Amino acid sequence: MDFLIDGSEDAPATLLLAHGAGAPMDASAMTAAAVAIAAAGIRVARFEFAYMAARRNGGRRPPPKAELLIGEYRAAVEALAVSTRS
After folding, report:
1. Can you give the pTM of this predicted structure?
2. How far apart are CA 65 and CA 86, in angstroms?
3. Alpha-carbon distance 48 to 17, whole Å?
4. Is the separation of the CB atoms in 34 and 6 below 8 Å?
C-alpha cells in the first residue's frame, strides 16, 4: 500500500486520511489539509482506495458503498502500523 506522508516521523501521533469519493489522495484540498495538520505537529498519512487508484490508470467507475471499503481501510491501518514500527 502506498502512502503520502506529511510531518515528522517522531510526531506524537499519526493521522490516517482517506480521500473522498470525488478526488484522489493528492488533491489540492487534501494536500493543504495534510500540510496544515503536519505543521501543527501531527504526522499525516494519506492513502487511496483501490477504486480511486484504478482511476489513475483510466478506469472510471463510481465509488462503492462506504461499508464495502472498511476492509481496505483496516488494511491501511495495519500497513501503516507495520511501516512505522521500530
Report:
1. 0.84
2. 35
3. 9
4. yes
Q: Where does 1-86 show beta strands of DSSP type E?
A: 4-6, 14-18, 43-47
| Cα→Cα distances 3→9, 16, 77, Å | 13, 9, 11
Domains held by the chain: number: 1
Q: What is the pLDDT along the chain (86 residues), one digit of tens a residue?
A: 899 999 999 999 999 999 888 889 999 999 999 999 999 999 999 999 988 988 888 877 788 888 999 999 999 999 998 665 54
Distance CA 18, CA 48 (A): 6
Q: Which residue carries 506524537 as its cell?
A: 12
Domain extent at residue 41 = 4-84
Nearest to 81 by CA among 51, 53, 43: 43
- Residue 50 and residue 40: Cα distance in Å, rounded? 30
